[in-house]
């Protein structure tokens, strides 16, 4: 677990126990990346360096071109590791504690740079030395086995704990082996701990399919234009929503990659696949590239250059938000509101209709209110009210200002909706435009209720995700849809809605 205390005393033996009576002189070698910790220390250091800016990102690419060992050395110098922040595996810590209690040497053996492994060994109180990458030699697989042989002798016995196929040669040479993940077929290697989450399940969890409901905003132009009854229009809008979901999932993976450290310190986000080590960084990057490419390619086929450019704009703004804009006070809320509005713009482009100025303005202020609500919830739950929130541009004492700004934005959204209902141009598109005024009442109820519930601590996480699950929010949405249909089609629709 992150921030696990150093090992200084005896611990209960794990299921795969070590016989201390017969193996006091046999050292236990423990792999670090993916085994002792769920993290990939070297790759995460490279990511932290790269996210500092374009120059740093270019430098990382140059280091990688010069070899893995060089990249690890440079990252270790530029990004000193904090061993207390790592997500340690409890089962491996118990195995180490038992070996130490039996008087056996415990040595960390890793392909990560020796500077970082030395810090981890010091944090855990391991004093028997380390084996790690130093200079230009990347200490993995056979190279690690050769380093162990040079320490214990060509025929010396040792035990080994690892996690991947690269450790097969070490398990074959070890007297006893354990694995926290990959177990070679037909080997005597024992599994340590519970089996890890499958790759397919981890990938599905990481792309956050529950967030795809937000992309239903792409369907809004089809409904506001009254064209949703045409199969061609509805199919095009649904396809655009699907493409938006692919692109959004691509960005979620990048965002989780950049936020791993902050997620590990969070009460619930620490269970995300990247933060928890269930999904590797290379797989996450590959999946992100695949989803993003599929979304843009589909956009080109569906709507040509214009739709592709809007999808690219969404990707660019979201990526900028992940790297930098999320930490800009007030600017982050404006960017979030803009991203929600771009979804509606993409829906209009996909079906070829011009969007109302009032609709876009209403969207900006409504989602600005919800963006402020999201920040309010984060600040409300902050344990350090006078310190800057991790990765954000706010301190806890900004709470009241954020709440006032959010409520005010919601009230402006209702005012814009009222002006839209009053606009003479609106009347030409609706059979009963006077009914549009009624939309303001359920929306007024919903916005005020949502903020009051947040003030009481009854709304957690993303307010949009909360609204999708909240029965009263769903009822408000259904009531507004019924009013809109009645205004669009007149008394006949009103009669159907009433029935």
Give a brief description.
With 499 residues, the chain is mainly alpha-helical.
Report on this structure.
- By secondary structure, the protein is mainly alpha-helical.
- 58% of the residues lie in helices and 5% in strands.
- The chain contains 21 helices and 6 strands.
- The chain has a 6-stranded parallel β-sheet with strand order 3-2-1-4-5-6.
- Helix 10 packs antiparallel against helix 14.
- The longest helix is centred in the middle third of the chain and has 43 residues.
- The termini are far apart.
- The N terminus and C terminus are likely disordered.
Give the C-alpha Rg.
28 Å
Assign a percent range to the helix content.
55-70%
Task: Give me the count of strands.
Answer: 6
- Count, helices: 21
Structural class: mainly alpha
Poorly predicted segments = 1-22, 493-499
How many angstroms separate the termini?
A: 56 Å
Shape: elongated
Write the layout of secondary structure elements.
Elements: E1 28-30, H1 41-50, H2 54-65, H3 68-78, H4 90-101, E2 106-113, H5 114-124, E3 130-133, H6 142-152, E4 159-162, H7 168-173, E5 176-179, E6 190-191, H8 199-206, H9 220-224, H10 231-258, H11 260-264, H12 273-276, H13 281-323, H14 331-351, H15 357-380, H16 399-422, H17 424-427, H18 440-455, H19 463-469, H20 471-489, H21 491-498
Parallel strand pairs: 1-2, 1-4, 2-3, 4-5, 5-6
Helix pairs in contact: 1-3, 2-3, 10-13, 10-14, 13-14, 14-15, 15-16, 16-18, 20-21
